[in-house]
Specification:
Order of helices and strands: HHHHHHH
């Protein structure tokens, strides 16, 4: 499963059905109150406040999904680097702990051709290994492309939110000017963190 598919599935199952109107409508929410309070003007205000809090939670979960997908890409990349570094060492015997790690990776990822080996190659045996290494590099490039696309989506989302604010289309409910100001600061902080992470990579 590619990282883009993983992210799409997580978003589909965790975010799409999570918006407050999907869970409960304003009418159903109003019906939860005693009859004497159902006409109170604070009920819709409370609903909008809950909707706003729910949207913030959804944004937080979305950011966590993105960071988990990135972390998975980085972990897979580290596994590939560690395997290649170990293959470069010639004549080093594996310890019992190393063997257990390899067995766990085989159980988790399945048998792969880039597990550490100490076999010397002939011309006929090196060709499949080189082809497998090319496939591994292509997989790593695809993972990096997926990560880049994830970063682009995050940047577009943040820029879109800031653009909506700039042109007066910012219509998130509840909280007033102070909450909007905090949300703008949060968006700018997310953008700054994203740029810092890209610079560090």
């Amino acid at each position: 499963m590619t990282d883009r598919k993983e992210k799409a599935l997580l978003r589909q199952f965790l975010l799409d059905p999570a918006a407050l109107p999907e869970v409960i409508s304003l009418e159903d929410f109003t019906d939860l109150f005693p009859r004497a309070l159902r006409s109170n003007p604070q009920v819709p205000v409370l609903y909008r406040e809950l909707q706003h809090e729910r949207a913030r939670t959804i944004d937080h979960v979305d950011a966590n999904i993105s960071s988990e997908v990135k972390r998975g890409v980085a972990q897979r990349r580290e596994v590939v680097r560690a395997r290649r570094a170990e293959e470069k060492e010639n004549g080093v015997e594996q310890t019992e702990g190393d063997q257990r790690e390899v067995e766990m990776e085989v159980d988790f990822y399945g048998q792969t051709s880039n597990l550490p080996t100490n076999n010397h190659h002939t011309l006929s045996s090196i060709i499949p290994e080189l082809q497998a290494a090319c496939v591994d590099v292509e997989i790593e490039i695809a993972a990096m492309d997926d990560e880049l696309e994830t970063v682009r989506e995050d940047v577009r989302s943040i820029i879109g939110d800031l653009s909506d604010l700039r042109y007066g289309r910012f219509n998130k409910a509840g909280g007033g000017a102070e909450a909007v100001g905090q949300e703008v600061l949060d968006g700018l902080k997310r953008l700054e963190d994203l740029c810092a992470n890209l610079a560090n990579d």
